């Protein structure tokens, strides 16, 4: 089975990050340019998760990497040695 995102935990993490950054759902809506604040409540309640572009914007707004907002079981599926080698190559290339 491939790695999966836990929507509920991710929503809780987004809520937490919004709280410590003193950001309201309305702030997020305006920052991202969404027409409806309900979308942010859906993220916070684990009904859905932000699409990639919104996740990228949120990471800047909340001062964290995108990975810090997502909760899932990916670490159970990763070959840690291979990941380290790939990350070193990426650092050298970019």
Protein architecture, described:
Helix 2 (25-32) crosses helix 3 (38-44). The chain has 94 residues and is mainly alpha-helical. It has helices at residues 7-20, 25-32, 38-44, 52-62, 80-93. The longest helix has 14 residues, at 7-20.
Summarize the topology.
Layout: H1 7-20, H2 25-32, H3 38-44, H4 52-62, H5 80-93
Helix pairs in contact: 2-3
Would you kindly provide a brief summary of this structure?
The chain has 94 residues and is mainly α. Helix content is 57%, strand content 0%.
For this entry, give a set of tags.
94 residues; 5 helices; mainly alpha
Helix-strand sequence: HHHHH
- Largest β-sheet summary: none
Q: Please, how many helices?
A: 5
User: How much strand?
Assistant: under 5%
Distance between the termini: 32 Å
């Amino acid at each position: 089975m491939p790695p999966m995102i836990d929507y509920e935990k991710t929503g809780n993490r987004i809520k937490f990050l919004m709280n410590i950054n003193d950001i309201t759902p309305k702030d997020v809506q305006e920052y991202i340019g969404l027409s409806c604040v309900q979308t942010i409540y859906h993220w916070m309640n684990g009904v859905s998760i932000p699409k990639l572009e919104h996740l990228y914007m949120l990471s800047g707004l909340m001062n964290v990497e995108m990975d810090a907002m997502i909760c899932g079981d990916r670490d159970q599926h990763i070959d840690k040695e291979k990941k380290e080698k790939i990350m070193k190559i990426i650092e050298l290339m970019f």
